[in-house]
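Person: Show me a sequence?

Helper:
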Amino acid sequence: MPGNTDGAHKIAVLRPGAQVEGEFISRPNRFLGIVKIDGREELVHIHDPGRLEELLYNGNGVLVKRAEGPRRKTSWSLIAASYENQWIFTNSGYHRQISENLMNFLFAGADIRAEVRIGHSRLDFVVKNGDACTGVEIKGCTLTEDGKALFPDAPTERGRKHIETLVEMMDEGCGAVLVVLVFRKDSRCFAPNRRTDPAFARALENAVKKGLSVRPMLMEYDGETVWWTGEIGLC
C-alpha cells in the first residue's frame, strides 16, 4: 500500500482493518458517542473535532472498530457513518497515514519531513527538493452541500493559524500547499465554509491571493479501503 486498482483510476491509501456495523444513538460530548453494537449500547471514541451533524444522529448506521492500546477509556473507535448509500470516513486519527501515502505521489523523490515546527505553529509536512521548500498542511472534509465540499464544519482557530503559518512560509520564499481530504464522493468542488467560520474563510482566501495552492483530494471509502479517486477544483 498504496497500490493501483485493477484498471480503475483509484489508488488505495488506507485499510483501517476489520470493523463491525452499529447504530448511532447519541453524542454526549465532542469525543464520545453511544452506539448500539450487537444489541448493546457501547461507548465509542469519536476522533473528529467537527460537528458531523448530518452523519451522527440517532438511528444512523456507522462502522466501528475495536480499540487498540491498554490506556484507552473506550473499547471502540468510530470509523465511518452512512450517508445516502455511501460510507463517509470520519476518523481523523488516520489522516496522517492517508496523507503520508498521498505525499509519496504528490512529491515523489523529494525529502518529506513530517510535523515540522514553523514559528509558533507546526505544519504537517515540509518538503525539500534541492533548494526549493514547500509547506504542506492537511485538512479533512466530510461536509458537502449541493456538490460543494465545505471546510470547516465547526469553527477552527487552529486551522486559521495553520493557514497563517503557510503564508509565513511563502513570505520567506517557500511554496505552500493546503491539501484537503474530501471524504464525500458526491463533491464537485471545494470552498471554505464562510457561514460556519468566516475568519478561516478570509484567511484562506487571502492566502490564495498570495500564492497558496489548494488541492482538494477526493476520497472514497467502501467499508474496507480508503481510495484516492482524483482531485477536484475550487468552487
About this structure: Confidence is low (pLDDT under 50) at residues 1-7. Residues 16 and 94 are 8 Å apart (CA to CA). The longest strand covers residues 20-29.
